[in-house]
Amino acid sequence: MSVKLRLRRIGRTKIPVFSIVATDSRNARDGRYIEDLGRYYPLREPAEVKLDEDRALYWLDNGAQPSDTVRSILYRRGLMLHNHLEQKGESPDTIEEEVQAFRERMAEKGDDLKMAVQPAGQDALEKERARAEELDEEAELRAQATSLSDVQDEAAADEADAGDAGDAEVDAGDAEDTADEDTDEDA
User: Fold this and answer.
1) 3-state class percentages of the chain: helix first, strand second, coil last, to nearest 5
2) 3-117 CATH
3) Residue 91 DSSP SS3
């Protein structure tokens, strides 16, 4: 069985999204596949690739032949270099250094392909964690605002009570003055 790494279209009409798959070369383009390795979003600016690099290397090591587009994607990620150095028998440390240097050169070159470093599932997990942190921060701010408004309400209530007590004393004094005036007029 001849295995190929190629694109499988899964997007809607006029909104292409491709799945990077390992498939038998005799299967149809959008037909059955062996394993889904990632996603390719060509319409995003810049084009975005999410790829499980370990599984792509596994299939390359087992002789899978990438299509031209997938070969380009793997090359930009440094996976073709990684596979080549592994086949030459280089040490894992040397391979890692070479791949890292290659990725830095590609970044300096200003490549127009945005690449997700982590596997596809990690991106959604990190977005969810970031959203949870934002919600926690908002809840803390609301709690602080509520406690601050409670303190302000209590201070306003204390002032109002003090003001009411002062008004009550003034009212009591006015009532006594009025009572004195009434008795003076009666006499």
Assistant:
1) 60, 20, 20
2) 3.30.1320.10
3) coil
Cα–chain-centroid distance for residue 82? 29
Q: Where are the domains of the chain?
A: 3-117
Q: What is the pLDDT of residues 24-54, one digit of tens each?
A: 989 888 889 999 999 999 999 888 999 999 9
Q: Is 6 left (phi over 0), alpha (psi -120 to 50) or beta?
A: beta
| Statement: the pTM of the whole predicted model exceeds 0.90 | no
Instruction: Tell me the residue length of the chain.
Output: 187
Backbone angles phi, psi at 107, to 5 degrees: -70, -40
Q: How far is CA 128 from the centre of its chain?
A: 6
Q: Tens digits of per-residue pLDDT, 124-164?
A: 777 877 888 888 888 888 888 887 777 777 777 777 777 66
Cβ atoms of 7 and 69 within 8 Å: the answer is yes
Asked whether 41 and 109 are in contact (CB, 8 A), the reply is no
Q: What is the CB neighbour count within 10 angstroms for residue 23?
A: 21
